[in-house]
Amino acid sequence: MPPKKSKKNAIAVPSFERAINSKMRFGAHVGMAGGVYNAVTNAITLGCNTFALFLKSPRRWESPPITDEDAKTFKDLCEKYKYNPRTDILPHGSYFINMANPDDEKWKKSFDCLLDDLKRCEKLNIGLYNFHPGSTLGLADTKDTAKDENAGVRRLADGLNTAIKETNFVRIVVENMAGHGNYVCGNLDDFNLLFTLLDDPKRVGVCIDTCHSFAAGYDLSNENGWNKFWTEFEEKVGIENLASLHVNDSMAPLGANRDLHQKLGQGFLTLECFRLLANDKRLEGIPLILETPIEGKEETSYGEEIKLLEWLVGRKKDDPEFIAKSEELQKLGLKIREEQASKFEKKKTTKRKAEEKAESKKTDISSMFKKAKRVKKEEDE
User: SUPFAM superfamilies recorded for this chain (predicted)?
Assistant: First the structure.
């Protein structure tokens, strides 16, 4: 059972043993209902070595400030349960923040919300903060960069540079997106540009979401694809700029541009992706956060998946137990994968027909002009 959440006596009885000496810092996004300090007791119950939380409602522009008493309780519990707030905790920003918004007034509103989050981090002595970079919304920028296809990334960089100057130590972690719509940072080229625009790159990091990467067309489901992605990341971004991972399988197929998280091993990424992740030394020591769908009670769902990740450490691809586990999980997710694959194929067919129709119309218009030109030429002669 979860611990009783009391401000005066916030004590947790772990349901899952914490592998505190592990080099792989597996954890999950946990609740903070009743007070931000409750996230710490929820995390220890799950056996987390790292955890994420919201610092306020993610679906409101403004929330009450964190009180001095709540901040002290949070810090005391971190010390009690041996969480280093500077390295082990990765808050997630408000869903409303859009630092690529081309509208000045709306951009400023997003910036204020971002800055409020960052100051909450520093009040709690938290050293990392993760957020979605945002979208250009398909609109022209109101600045001189109106015709610049990278205007959204430049807007994002402006916000980060300003936020860094107005805070002291928190590292702002930008999450990669699924390549959908007009969102920025759906590819590594955007991050490459972003880091060239930063005044203090050491104060900014990258969070790679495995589901988002797969949705954007980076195939992390096999060893070749996994290594290819990280080689490109090293070349375009730099492994020193990797601050964290969000560990999620994908309900949708490769390149579907759908942000649909799935439980580990049940999606198109398969358990092989997470075996590779659990054994990659490049990922040691950074927050590896689960955001998979919750089934039943949070403590059993995330706690079991953390144990699954720990079980994968040291496993070989041809391990009979690994093969059996992988097949078992794939069966559990088969129906959803089939449904999503069918939707993706229909979407591709619809898109192809629309493109063919547009091309045919373009050809008809071209033929019409050529015919008119030929007739005119004959009349002139």
Answer: Xylose isomerase-like (SSF51658)
65: left (phi over 0), alpha (psi -120 to 50) or beta: beta
Structure tokens at 325: 């586990």
pTM, rounded to two decimals: 0.88
Contact assessment for residue 279 and residue 234, using Cβ atoms and an 8 Å cutoff: no
Catalytic residue among 209, 249, 299, 305: 209
Residues 381, 252 within the same domain: no
Q: Does 3 have pLDDT greater than 50? A: no
pLDDT tens-digit series, residues 139-167: 876 555 445 779 999 999 999 999 999 99
Catalytic-residue membership of 378 = no
Q: Is 246 a catalytic residue?
A: yes
Residue 92 among the catalytic residues: yes
Please answer whether residues 159 and 114 qualify as being in contact, where contact means their C-beta atoms are separated by less than 8 angstroms.
yes
| Residue 104 designated active-site | no
Is residue 261 located within the same domain as residue 347? no
Residue numbers of the domain that contains 368: 336-381
Query: Looking at residues 282-306, what average pLDDT do you find?
Result: 88
Q: Does residue 291 have an active-site annotation?
A: yes
Note if 83 is an active site residue. Answer: no
Residue-averaged pLDDT of the chain? 90
